[in-house]
Amino acid sequence: MNSIVSKPITVHQTLDTAQSTHTTCPYCGVGCGVEVRKTKNSLTHNHQVNGIVGHPANQGRLCVKGSSLAETIGTKSRLLFPQFQANGQTEQVLWSQALDKIANTFKATIEQHGADSVAFYVSGQLLTEDYYVANKFVKGFLGTANIDTNSRLCMSSAVAGHKRAFGEDIVPGCYEDFELADMIVLVGSNTAWCHPVLFQRIAKAKESNPDLCVVVIDPRHTATCDIADIHLPLLSGTDVALFNGLLHWLHQHGAQDHQFVTAHTQGLSDALKQAGEHRDTKALAELCGVQLQNLEAFFKKFAQTEKVITLFSMGVNQSSQGTDKVNSIINCHLYTGRIGKPGMGPFSMTGQPNAMGGREVGGLANMLAAHMELNNPVQRDRVQRFWQSPLIASENGLKAVELFEAVEAGRIKAIWIMATNPVVSLPNADQVKRALSNCDFVVVSDITAKTDTTAYADVLLPALGWGEKDGTVTNSERCISRQRAFLNAPGEAMPDWWAISQVAKRMGFDSAFDYHHPSEIFDEHARLSAFENLSSESDTYDVSAAQAENLVLAMSNSNPSTNFDFRYFNLKGLCGLSKAAYDALPPLQWPVLTPYQGTSRVLTNHRFSHPDGKARFISVKYEPPRHKASRDYPLALNSGRIRDQWHTMTRTGLAPTLGSHIPEPFIDMHPNDALSFGIKQNELARLHSQWGTLVARVQCSGNMRRGQVFVPIHWTAQTASDARVGALVNPVVDPVSGEPEFKHTPVRIEPFHVQWQGVAYSRYALNLEQAAWWTQIQTQAALRYELAGRQRINTVTEHGKALLLSHRALAEMVHNNQADWLEYSDHSSGIYHAAIMVDSQIQACIYIAPRELLPNREWIASLFVKSRLSSRDRMAILAGAPLGSANDAGPLVCSCFKVGKNTILNAIREKGLTTPKEVTACVKAGGNCGSCVPEIRTLIATCLVES
Predict the structure, then answer these.
(1) Is 371 helix (H, G, I), strand (E, B) or coil?
(2) What is one GO cellular-component annotation here (predicted)?
(3) pTM value?
(4) What mean pLDDT do residues 364-374 have?
């Protein structure tokens, strides 16, 4: 194929030589501020990442993922140039060629099939400026609302619940409320692993205030339960019944804030009527699968405590009844008037760094920018007038799951996917494969060249990654922070907003997309937020509903063509920022009515965004999950994140620090269920659902209820042979929000029989076609492979050698006598050890043996870090174990300081340690991000039981 190297006209500037850059972490919704410093330490790619002490979100703290960001910098896996793909062949092309092809194809498709035949699928990984331009282009100029986002998969139920209750998508409180509360309820959130920095703030608050009551409501016993006073392991999907029962309890025990409810709400009677179905707490406890004593303790504590904050996350949102779950929680806060005040309120915790920013610009298919609605003709007209667009979408677009169903059905002919990997992350993920395989035209913008999704692209566009792109993100407490570039763009990578704008210009929309810098986009975004927004008429929100109606009437009389409404989302104070002011923008929580004056809490005056200014109680009825367990599928699959990985590992998978804690996918289940289904701990098993299959190793952690299994979401076809959990997840969605049911899919399990298991390390990627099962993880100097096969035991030598020589470079080293070949085999025992050495440095090795005889992985990894191995090391390689009295640190517990389980256990036993702080003082574990503290506490408890 042709190789064209031609740098386009760029919108980047060459970055200066500043030694320090303040930016924002690209992982979860906490939105931590990070300082990136240049360093000469090559192990961190010449950069060091630390938390910013003065940033309001993290106050200097970082989790291990944030601390390891420097390890993800580089071009190893990057997509660096535009490409065309066809018939398995890839051709590098000019940007102008790629943009022309996209514009011409979109234009022809719309002319032939209409605007709704094209679609975009974008991501909470985008910056707000990228998100804004994409939505403006699609909804205001192409004239379709077929643009949805992977945020549909994590927080759209929260959006829908907020809008039903408050009239607008509002998170009322801020992180400080967790430190001011007297009771914190964590619902469907493994906060300790998924939002570690916020969890550490909560843990510190509890340490300072022992009376702070923490309740965890989650089917699993997670690390978050480490600080829980009450854990309610409710049955999956019963949240609505639980909170309806709480609402009825509050009503029966006189906990209503009568003044607040009368003055500021509507709809209580219907909500109470529905909640009355769960008046019998004994029956409710049985329905939810929790102990009656603990259920009543929770209800009593909630009723008696004024300062209650309820954090909810994916376990609530990712459900076929997710929106109702959200409203059942909000109902309890409205009933008690616990909203808009310090230390109290419902709090939606988002999963992505800019899920909130996407909501601000109308990133979902049923929204318009600036918290306006597609199905509201007044707001639709307002946005169109502001954009001066030729047309505007008039109907809601297709939500994520139905969007890809429309692609497979042929109703959508062209799709542009940005910064997300739907072939892995969507439910019924094999359907997404079929859809993209059959789609006439697929464009993918990404930073990674090879993902499960890029394989289906006709056009691949190289995007900027963290450290290169420039713009803003908004975290879960409405705090807008800058992501600043400190790296020059690699290859020909460009901003997503630039690529969209170039296509828009080629389609005839030149003036509307003539952006030269993200500051111009942010200014337009800010001006739209204030445009005909009633809240712009005052510098405070102390406006009653009656006063608001009078203001609207007065404005309408003076200018009958103008229709104002009230929206809390307002960046009036940030309109007109110069490029320099934008570059220096400090973290601010919206609304921002006056320059650089953010708002920590909203709803403080109990003025809601419904036209009458009142909140709505929503009557919600408990419905069991759509798909129930059956004889064929007797177990319920739950999915979620693990501590040290993120989404589909395209970024965290590059960081060796993050690969050791949980290096392979797993199926966690109750030991009695494992026994019932003939499954052994640490052996492989296959899960089946109606939609797909998965193979992973089984663990019985003791954290699972009977009848339920858990699998992490992160592994892909790039990192495992068969571990895409999305392939199993049922495609049922919430009827209001369109969010899928990731927490409850009926499955069955069976042993995955293999003849041999092994582990390999290699500096070169191996071809694993001969293995029946494999997973891959990055270590500091090599790739680690866990392997299993179905070939006969007495042929392991043949297959082990073939696997090790599967990379051409390794094979040539051996065949040309440029390498030493070390080998040991025992056919009768099914043991095979082999290694390739060049100039006393190990290049690759493989060990096949019964699982209990496989070597320590950390020891093998340490050999690859050495520039030269001794003769003793060479003998140890063949033996498969270090010679002499080398200590086995055990499985990694603390990723920050590389401290293993055995090291911690030995310290606890030898020195009589009884607290995590004592462990930290002794071996450092737990002394940085604190994510491993729950595991340390468990190890201490284990030792206490032994003694």
Answers:
(1) coil
(2) membrane
(3) 0.94
(4) 97
Question: Residue 562: its pLDDT value, please?
Answer: 57
Do 239 and 288 share a domain, yes or no? yes
Residue 287 in tokens: 């329905």
Tell me the two tokens of residue 431: 């359907």
Distance CA 573, CA 330 (A): 30
Q: Residue 279 pLDDT more than 70?
A: yes
Q: Name which of 82, 138, 144 is nearest 116 in CA terms.
A: 144
118, 104 Cβ separation under 8 angstroms: no
pLDDT at position 41 = 61
Lowest mean pLDDT among 345-349, 376-380, 555-559: 555-559
Same domain, 306 and 181: yes
At 843, list the tokens. 């290049």
Same-domain check for residues 178 and 301: yes
Nearest to 925 by CA among 903, 906, 897: 897
Where helices occur in 641-782 by DSSP H, the ranges are: 671-676
CB atoms closer than 10 angstroms to residue 104 = 13
Same domain? 935 vs 873: no
- Assess if residue 113 is contained within a domain: yes
What is the phi/psi pair of residue 778, to 5°?
-85, 130
CATH number at 679 reads 2.40.40.20
Name the token pair of 492: 């020909």
Residue 8 covered by a domain:
no
Q: Are residues 554 and 656 in the same domain?
A: no
Joined tokens for residue 668: 């966690």
| 460 plus 488 within the same structural domain | yes
**Domain presence at residue 552:** yes
Burial group, residue 938, by CB count within 10 angstroms (0-12, 13-18, 19+): middle
Mean pLDDT over 152-178 rounds to 97
- Among 847, 879, 911, residue at a domain's last position: 879
221-278 pLDDT tens trace: 999 999 999 999 999 999 999 999 999 999 999 999 999 999 999 999 999 999 999 9
CB 478 within 8 A of CB 57: no
- What is each CA distance from 255 to 138, 182, 258, 471, 501, in whole angstroms? 48, 16, 9, 45, 54
CA angle 766–444–76, rounded 5-degree value: 35
Residue type, 768: L
Q: Kindly tell me if the per-residue pLDDT of 560 is higher than 50.
A: no
Q: How many domains in the chain?
A: 7
One-letter amino acid identity for 211?
A: D
2 found inside a domain: no
Q: pLDDT band at residue 536, thresholds of 50, 70 and 90? A: confident
Place of tokens 């979860």: 28
| pLDDT tens-digit series, residues 637-659 | 999 999 999 999 999 999 999 99
Do 869 and 913 sit in the same domain of this protein? Answer: no
Distances (CA, A) of 56 to 355, 471, 509, 643: 18, 18, 40, 23
236 and 335 share a domain?
yes
- Residues of the domain holding 679: 635-751
Boundary-marking domain end, from 583, 616, 649: 616
Helices 916-923 and 933-946 meet at what angle, rounded to 10?
A: 100
Instruction: Give Cα separations from 823 to 496, 543, 770, 801, 846 (angstroms).
Output: 50, 80, 20, 9, 10
What is the chain's Cα-based Rg?
28
Q: What is the CATH number of the domain that holds 498?
A: 3.40.50.740
Confidence class for position 480, pLDDT limits 50, 70, 90: very high
Residue pLDDT, tens place only, 590-628: 999 999 999 999 999 999 999 999 999 999 999 999 888
Q: Nearest 5°: phi and psi at 891?
A: -55, 145
d(CA 94, CA 931): 45
Helix residue ranges per DSSP H, 836-932: 857-865, 871-879, 901-911, 916-923
Confidence of residue 888 (pLDDT cuts 50, 70, 90): confident
- The more confident residue out of 776 and 5 is 776
